[in-house]
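Dear support,

Our group has been running a series of protein-ligand predictions, and this particular one with zinc ion is the one our PI (initials K.S.) wants archived with full inputs and outputs. We had some confusion internally about which version of the output was final, so please treat the block below as the authoritative record. The input we submitted was:
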Amino acid sequence: MPELPEVETVRRGLEQQTRGRTIRRVEVLRPRAIANPETPQAFAEGLQGCELVGWQRRGKYLIGGLRRGSAPGGHWGVHLRMTGQFLLVPAAHEAALPPCRHTRVRLWTEEGDELRFIDMRSFGQMWWVPPEVAVERVISGLQRLGPEPFSDGFTGAYLHNRLQGSQRTIKAALLDQGLVAGVGNIYADESLFLAGIRPHTPCSALDLKQLQRLREALVDVLERSIGAGGTTFSDFRDLTGTNGNYGGEALVYRRTGQPCRVCGAPIERSRLGGRSSHWCPACQH
Ligand SMILES: [Zn+2]
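Confirmed final output from the archive:
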Protein backbone atom coordinates (compact mmCIF):
# COMPACT_ATOMS: atom_id res chain seq x y z
CA MET A 1 0.00 0.00 0.00
CA PRO A 2 1.43 3.41 -0.85
CA GLU A 3 2.50 5.26 2.27
CA LEU A 4 3.57 8.84 2.76
CA PRO A 5 6.90 8.62 0.86
CA GLU A 6 5.27 6.96 -2.15
CA VAL A 7 2.43 9.48 -2.18
CA GLU A 8 4.94 12.31 -1.82
CA THR A 9 6.92 10.86 -4.73
CA VAL A 10 3.74 10.81 -6.82
CA ARG A 11 2.98 14.39 -5.74
CA ARG A 12 6.38 15.56 -6.91
CA GLY A 13 5.91 13.74 -10.19
CA LEU A 14 2.50 15.31 -10.73
CA GLU A 15 3.86 18.73 -9.81
CA GLN A 16 6.68 18.35 -12.30
CA GLN A 17 4.66 16.84 -15.14
CA THR A 18 1.24 18.45 -14.88
CA ARG A 19 1.62 21.88 -13.27
CA GLY A 20 0.56 24.56 -15.69
CA ARG A 21 -1.13 22.05 -17.97
CA THR A 22 -4.77 22.35 -18.95
CA ILE A 23 -7.05 19.31 -18.86
CA ARG A 24 -8.84 19.02 -22.17
CA ARG A 25 -10.81 15.84 -21.71
CA VAL A 26 -11.61 13.31 -18.98
CA GLU A 27 -12.88 9.78 -19.50
CA VAL A 28 -14.05 7.74 -16.51
CA LEU A 29 -13.89 4.02 -17.22
CA ARG A 30 -14.96 2.96 -13.75
CA PRO A 31 -17.60 5.22 -12.18
CA ARG A 32 -16.91 3.86 -8.68
CA ALA A 33 -13.48 5.49 -8.76
CA ILE A 34 -15.27 8.83 -8.48
CA ALA A 35 -16.31 9.67 -4.92
CA ASN A 36 -17.57 13.17 -5.76
CA PRO A 37 -19.57 14.56 -7.56
CA GLU A 38 -22.19 11.85 -7.91
CA THR A 39 -21.80 11.23 -11.62
CA PRO A 40 -18.66 10.66 -13.68
CA GLN A 41 -20.02 13.26 -16.11
CA ALA A 42 -20.09 15.95 -13.42
CA PHE A 43 -16.55 14.97 -12.40
CA ALA A 44 -15.34 15.23 -15.98
CA GLU A 45 -17.08 18.58 -16.47
CA GLY A 46 -15.53 19.91 -13.27
CA LEU A 47 -12.02 19.16 -14.47
CA GLN A 48 -12.29 19.73 -18.20
CA GLY A 49 -10.97 23.13 -19.25
CA CYS A 50 -9.14 23.66 -15.94
CA GLU A 51 -5.45 24.38 -15.54
CA LEU A 52 -3.55 22.51 -12.81
CA VAL A 53 -1.88 25.11 -10.65
CA GLY A 54 -0.05 22.82 -8.23
CA TRP A 55 -0.22 19.70 -6.07
CA GLN A 56 -0.31 19.34 -2.31
CA ARG A 57 -0.21 16.28 -0.11
CA ARG A 58 -2.05 15.82 3.18
CA GLY A 59 -1.44 12.42 4.75
CA LYS A 60 -1.94 10.07 1.82
CA TYR A 61 -4.30 12.41 -0.01
CA LEU A 62 -3.18 14.26 -3.13
CA ILE A 63 -4.87 17.58 -3.81
CA GLY A 64 -4.50 19.37 -7.11
CA GLY A 65 -5.42 23.05 -7.34
CA LEU A 66 -7.49 24.03 -10.39
CA ARG A 67 -8.04 27.30 -12.22
CA ARG A 68 -10.60 27.97 -14.90
CA GLY A 69 -9.30 30.90 -16.92
CA SER A 70 -8.73 33.58 -14.31
CA ALA A 71 -11.33 32.13 -11.91
CA PRO A 72 -10.81 29.40 -9.28
CA GLY A 73 -11.63 25.93 -10.61
CA GLY A 74 -11.88 24.09 -7.30
CA HIS A 75 -9.76 21.08 -6.36
CA TRP A 76 -9.02 17.61 -7.65
CA GLY A 77 -8.52 15.11 -4.81
CA VAL A 78 -6.96 11.68 -5.26
CA HIS A 79 -6.36 8.80 -2.83
CA LEU A 80 -4.35 5.90 -4.26
CA ARG A 81 -5.49 3.44 -1.52
CA MET A 82 -3.99 -0.04 -2.12
CA THR A 83 -2.83 -0.09 -5.71
CA GLY A 84 -3.72 3.19 -7.43
CA GLN A 85 -1.05 4.69 -9.65
CA PHE A 86 -0.67 7.33 -12.31
CA LEU A 87 1.07 6.83 -15.59
CA LEU A 88 1.94 9.71 -17.87
CA VAL A 89 1.63 8.64 -21.48
CA PRO A 90 3.13 11.16 -23.91
CA ALA A 91 1.00 11.75 -27.01
CA ALA A 92 3.68 10.16 -29.19
CA HIS A 93 3.54 6.89 -27.20
CA GLU A 94 -0.21 6.55 -26.76
CA ALA A 95 -0.70 4.25 -29.73
CA ALA A 96 1.97 1.91 -28.40
CA LEU A 97 0.51 1.91 -24.88
CA PRO A 98 -3.19 0.99 -25.03
CA PRO A 99 -4.92 1.22 -21.61
CA CYS A 100 -4.77 -2.01 -19.60
CA ARG A 101 -7.95 -3.48 -18.11
CA HIS A 102 -7.20 -1.88 -14.75
CA THR A 103 -7.35 1.62 -16.19
CA ARG A 104 -10.00 3.59 -14.27
CA VAL A 105 -9.70 7.19 -15.41
CA ARG A 106 -7.99 8.81 -18.39
CA LEU A 107 -7.23 12.52 -18.67
CA TRP A 108 -5.78 14.31 -21.67
CA THR A 109 -3.97 17.62 -21.63
CA GLU A 110 -4.27 20.24 -24.34
CA GLU A 111 -0.98 18.98 -25.76
CA GLY A 112 -2.53 15.52 -26.19
CA ASP A 113 -0.51 13.81 -23.45
CA GLU A 114 -2.47 11.42 -21.30
CA LEU A 115 -2.48 11.04 -17.53
CA ARG A 116 -3.79 7.56 -16.84
CA PHE A 117 -5.05 6.30 -13.48
CA ILE A 118 -4.53 2.56 -13.13
CA ASP A 119 -5.82 0.69 -10.09
CA MET A 120 -5.74 -3.10 -9.92
CA ARG A 121 -7.63 -3.44 -6.64
CA SER A 122 -9.99 -0.57 -7.43
CA PHE A 123 -10.06 1.04 -3.98
CA GLY A 124 -8.55 4.30 -5.24
CA GLN A 125 -10.79 7.37 -5.15
CA MET A 126 -11.07 10.75 -6.82
CA TRP A 127 -13.01 13.86 -5.94
CA TRP A 128 -13.75 17.09 -7.67
CA VAL A 129 -14.39 19.81 -5.11
CA PRO A 130 -16.14 22.85 -6.59
CA PRO A 131 -14.67 26.31 -5.97
CA GLU A 132 -15.87 28.03 -2.80
CA VAL A 133 -16.40 24.70 -1.09
CA ALA A 134 -13.90 23.73 1.64
CA VAL A 135 -11.90 20.69 0.55
CA GLU A 136 -12.42 18.97 3.94
CA ARG A 137 -16.18 19.20 3.57
CA VAL A 138 -16.13 17.02 0.49
CA ILE A 139 -13.09 14.85 1.28
CA SER A 140 -14.20 14.13 4.83
CA GLY A 141 -11.24 11.80 5.57
CA LEU A 142 -9.08 14.92 5.77
CA GLN A 143 -10.90 16.02 8.92
CA ARG A 144 -9.65 13.02 10.86
CA LEU A 145 -5.97 13.38 10.02
CA GLY A 146 -3.41 14.08 12.71
CA PRO A 147 -0.36 16.30 12.11
CA GLU A 148 2.06 15.68 9.26
CA PRO A 149 5.25 13.95 10.43
CA PHE A 150 7.33 16.85 9.09
CA SER A 151 5.22 19.56 10.70
CA ASP A 152 6.17 21.60 13.75
CA GLY A 153 3.22 20.13 15.63
CA PHE A 154 4.61 16.60 15.49
CA THR A 155 7.01 16.42 18.43
CA GLY A 156 7.97 13.97 21.13
CA ALA A 157 5.93 16.05 23.57
CA TYR A 158 2.88 15.83 21.29
CA LEU A 159 3.21 12.02 21.18
CA HIS A 160 3.71 11.84 24.93
CA ASN A 161 0.68 13.97 25.53
CA ARG A 162 -1.52 11.94 23.17
CA LEU A 163 -0.32 8.49 24.23
CA GLN A 164 -0.04 8.91 27.99
CA GLY A 165 -2.18 6.31 29.73
CA SER A 166 -3.08 4.52 26.50
CA GLN A 167 -2.98 0.74 26.72
CA ARG A 168 -2.86 0.11 22.98
CA THR A 169 0.42 -0.91 21.41
CA ILE A 170 2.77 1.70 19.94
CA LYS A 171 2.53 -0.07 16.59
CA ALA A 172 -1.25 0.34 16.51
CA ALA A 173 -0.89 3.98 17.56
CA LEU A 174 1.54 4.74 14.72
CA LEU A 175 -0.90 3.28 12.19
CA ASP A 176 -3.67 5.54 13.51
CA GLN A 177 -3.99 8.36 10.94
CA GLY A 178 -5.54 10.53 13.63
CA LEU A 179 -2.30 10.45 15.64
CA VAL A 180 0.05 11.12 12.74
CA ALA A 181 -0.86 11.35 9.05
CA GLY A 182 0.49 9.06 6.37
CA VAL A 183 2.31 6.31 8.30
CA GLY A 184 1.62 2.69 7.43
CA ASN A 185 3.09 -0.71 8.19
CA ILE A 186 6.49 -0.27 6.53
CA TYR A 187 7.56 2.96 8.19
CA ALA A 188 6.01 2.04 11.52
CA ASP A 189 8.19 -1.10 11.66
CA GLU A 190 11.29 0.67 10.38
CA SER A 191 11.01 3.62 12.77
CA LEU A 192 10.33 1.38 15.79
CA PHE A 193 13.50 -0.53 14.95
CA LEU A 194 15.53 2.68 14.68
CA ALA A 195 14.11 3.90 17.98
CA GLY A 196 14.83 0.54 19.67
CA ILE A 197 11.21 0.03 20.70
CA ARG A 198 9.33 -3.28 20.35
CA PRO A 199 6.12 -2.90 18.35
CA HIS A 200 3.94 -4.50 21.03
CA THR A 201 5.03 -2.08 23.76
CA PRO A 202 1.98 -0.43 25.35
CA CYS A 203 2.02 3.32 24.71
CA SER A 204 1.73 4.04 28.43
CA ALA A 205 5.10 2.35 29.03
CA LEU A 206 6.99 4.84 26.82
CA ASP A 207 8.56 7.93 28.31
CA LEU A 208 9.12 11.31 26.66
CA LYS A 209 12.69 10.49 25.70
CA GLN A 210 11.70 7.30 23.89
CA LEU A 211 8.92 9.09 22.07
CA GLN A 212 11.29 11.87 21.03
CA ARG A 213 13.59 9.19 19.65
CA LEU A 214 10.67 7.57 17.84
CA ARG A 215 9.63 10.89 16.31
CA GLU A 216 13.17 11.45 15.03
CA ALA A 217 13.40 7.90 13.69
CA LEU A 218 10.11 8.27 11.85
CA VAL A 219 11.05 11.57 10.24
CA ASP A 220 14.46 10.15 9.33
CA VAL A 221 13.11 6.99 7.70
CA LEU A 222 10.42 8.91 5.81
CA GLU A 223 12.95 11.45 4.53
CA ARG A 224 15.33 8.74 3.37
CA SER A 225 12.55 6.91 1.58
CA ILE A 226 11.33 10.05 -0.17
CA GLY A 227 14.92 10.62 -1.26
CA ALA A 228 14.94 7.12 -2.73
CA GLY A 229 11.68 7.68 -4.62
CA GLY A 230 9.43 5.51 -2.44
CA THR A 231 9.68 1.81 -1.71
CA THR A 232 9.57 -1.27 -3.84
CA PHE A 233 7.47 -3.17 -1.29
CA SER A 234 4.08 -2.59 -2.77
CA ASP A 235 4.92 -2.75 -6.47
CA PHE A 236 4.91 0.99 -6.28
CA ARG A 237 5.61 2.93 -9.46
CA ASP A 238 6.07 6.62 -10.02
CA LEU A 239 4.63 8.49 -12.99
CA THR A 240 7.23 7.12 -15.37
CA GLY A 241 6.75 3.52 -14.22
CA THR A 242 9.99 3.55 -12.24
CA ASN A 243 10.17 1.60 -9.01
CA GLY A 244 11.67 3.34 -5.98
CA ASN A 245 14.63 1.65 -4.37
CA TYR A 246 14.19 2.04 -0.63
CA GLY A 247 13.16 -1.63 -0.50
CA GLY A 248 16.74 -2.80 -0.85
CA GLU A 249 17.57 -0.95 2.34
CA ALA A 250 14.77 -2.12 4.65
CA LEU A 251 16.04 -2.74 8.17
CA VAL A 252 13.34 -5.11 9.38
CA TYR A 253 10.26 -4.86 7.17
CA ARG A 254 9.61 -8.21 5.45
CA ARG A 255 13.00 -9.51 6.57
CA THR A 256 11.61 -12.27 8.82
CA GLY A 257 14.33 -14.79 9.71
CA GLN A 258 17.07 -12.75 8.04
CA PRO A 259 19.94 -11.40 10.17
CA CYS A 260 19.45 -7.99 11.77
CA ARG A 261 21.62 -5.47 9.95
CA VAL A 262 22.93 -4.20 13.29
CA CYS A 263 23.37 -7.27 15.54
CA GLY A 264 22.84 -10.31 13.31
CA ALA A 265 19.93 -11.79 15.31
CA PRO A 266 17.14 -13.23 13.13
CA ILE A 267 14.34 -10.72 12.56
CA GLU A 268 11.07 -11.82 14.12
CA ARG A 269 7.54 -11.32 12.90
CA SER A 270 4.38 -11.15 14.97
CA ARG A 271 0.75 -10.38 14.25
CA LEU A 272 -0.47 -7.22 15.92
CA GLY A 273 -3.98 -5.94 15.35
CA GLY A 274 -4.27 -7.94 12.13
CA ARG A 275 -1.01 -6.57 10.67
CA SER A 276 2.44 -8.15 10.52
CA SER A 277 5.13 -6.52 12.60
CA HIS A 278 8.82 -7.09 11.98
CA TRP A 279 11.35 -6.49 14.73
CA CYS A 280 14.72 -7.44 16.16
CA PRO A 281 14.52 -9.25 19.51
CA ALA A 282 17.98 -7.98 20.48
CA CYS A 283 17.93 -4.34 19.33
CA GLN A 284 14.36 -3.53 20.38
CA HIS A 285 13.27 -3.51 24.01
ZN1 LIG B 1 19.33 -6.38 16.02
